[in-house]
């Protein structure tokens, strides 16, 4: 297995198909990705779509978001997914390490992420990589239902 991790800046059928395959492995409730949503993501300055490839096949992804707020330049990592067939081989670790390097290069002060407790592999991965648990409450307002 020869894994490379890179930023994606252009849409392609291969990328679209890979994300359509990977996203349901994270969320069964997310609406299927559309081509226009993928284009919007790739055009978004604050979002960086990262993929892991084994040779030419996309086997994992995450998205790094870097944004400015009054307390400084911050970053979050979202939608970390490694294909079921490629798990347990260090791919998730390579993806997260890449995101941390990118965030640091861009001057972010912190990198935040969330993961519910039932995601044992993800929580172990983040703690192994040095993320520390913050005592805070995470809230969500559902605009579509209001
Ligand atoms: C979480 C996920 C990205 C991990 O990817 P991965 O490539 O399998 O992880 P790695 O092989 O890089 O593992 C790195 C570390 O994570 C932890 N880890 C990975 N899989 C684990 C498992 N099944 N159980 C416990 N710890 C695990 C270990 O600490 C491991 O280090 P080690 O190999 O030295 O023990 C992958 O399991 C996944 O895509 N899960 C479904 C989607 C998801 O839950 N995403 C996270 C959303 S917050």
Structure explained in plain terms:
The structure is a single chain. By secondary structure, the chain is an alpha+beta fold. It contains four helices and five strands. Strands 1-2-3-4-5 form a five-stranded mixed beta sheet, sandwiched between helices. β2 (47-54) and β3 (57-69) form a beta hairpin. It starts with a strand and ends in an 18-residue tail after the last helix.
Domains (count)? 1
The bound ligands are: coenzyme A
CATH topology heading: Aminopeptidase
Structural class: alpha+beta
Going across the major beta sheet, what is the strand order? 1-2-3-4-5
| Corresponding CATH architecture | 3-Layer(aba) Sandwich
Rough outline: globular
> What is the number of helical segments per DSSP (H or I, 4+ residues)?
4
Catalogue the unreliable spans: none
The average pLDDT score comes to 97
Question: Strand fraction band?
Answer: 25-35%
CATH C-level class: Alpha Beta
- Please, what is the CATH homologous superfamily? Gcn5-related N-acetyltransferase (GNAT)
Distance between the termini: 47 Å
